[in-house]
Amino acid sequence: MNEYVLFFFIPLAWFVTMFMIEAGSIVMYPICRISTYKEKMKLVLGSLWAIIATSLVWLVVSLDSMFAPVMFATGEALFGILMTLIIILAFHHYLIGSAEGADSLGKESTSKLLFILAAPLALLVAFLGNTIFTSVFSGYGIGLKLPLTTVATVLEKHELPEVIEATHGSIQVFYPNFTSMIFNPFNWVFFIGIVMYVVYFTIVFYGIKERAILGFAGLTLSIILVLISTHEWLPIVFNNAIGNVGFWIYIIILYLLLYASTYRNLPWKQAWIFFFTFLGSIMFGVFTNGNILVDAVPPTGIPASLLLTNSVTLSASAPILAGAGFLVVGGVTAVSYKILYKSALEKAARKVETK
User: Fold this and answer.
1) I need a surface site. Which of 81, 130, 197, 355 has the fewest CB within 10 A?
2) What is the phi-psi region of residue 106: left when phi exceeds 0, alpha when psi lies from -120 to 50, beta otherwise?
């Protein structure tokens, strides 16, 4: 697998894991009946804004830097659904910010209502992101405007930038079929599997002992659905996972994390579940062997390495992107944890002591 393709999964996995924290917290907050966990969820939601926004920027910049030649060619296929995702995410964050403001003014009922309104938007953002993800890897909903042989020849000779430039950017190699992109069974089965994992993730993240059984059921159902969906529609991932001992060790670790977080009060449980979720996302990328658009370009799809920009640009951009990820994303995370989350916990503790 090309090292630059693998490198791209780092910002992708980081953003996905970060958004899981927010999505799990915002969906669980209205239905959680235990006030201690609800207060923690509210504090976490308030500390994630800058991290998620910065992570998304890092992901987009990485995509544009590493896969610049294909951005014009795929724009027509993915632009509409991506812009819809971004707009809904903006409204989602607006509601969370308004809920935080209402809470600071002592308007608890208004704050709760705004959090409730933000929850379905989080699910919609997650679904649209999942749709883009499954479409890119499977090819469902993405059609070809040019003959397959022409596309293959252009990609193999790395002539896509020259072809686009010669036509003044008018060529759109791929076009969307939104009905197929959204309503194909792979997208739905995989999405439900991810939702079940987010249930497990949230229970481990907060150490909710009272919902440990639900976490066990969520993880088990998630594994089953992800394996079924990849077996049926992305067999390269399924075959690589089933035959890999490390995958099964990873699954056992996830169950152990659930037990240790809920029944044994595992120290730094948030960091552990974040790390292993991040690692699992990277693992999925490795299992793809770097192939995408399996349905659009059968039988094995297109190696993502054919869509990379030229080697000189890659060599220059990779260390810059790595440095940006370490300094910007890492720095924002540290600041958000220290100033927003930790200070908020201390403030909440002082409030309890004065009552």
Assistant:
1) 355
2) left
pLDDT above 80 (res 202): yes
- Condensed to tens digits (0 to 9), the pLDDT of residues 41-51 reads 888 887 777 78
Could you give the C-alpha distances from 115 to 5, 257, 346, in angstroms and in order? 37, 28, 23
In this predicted structure, the answer to whether residue 272 has a pLDDT above a threshold of 90 is yes
Helix 35-47 × helix 185-206 angle, to 10°: 110
Residue 29 DSSP class:
H
3-state secondary structure of 243: coil
The pLDDT tens digits for 11-21 are 999 999 999 99
To the question of pTM greater than 0.70 for the whole model, the response is yes
Can you tell me the distance from the alpha carbon of 155 to that of 151, in angstroms, rounded to the nearest whole number? Answer: 6
Residue entry with tokens 């686009």:
164
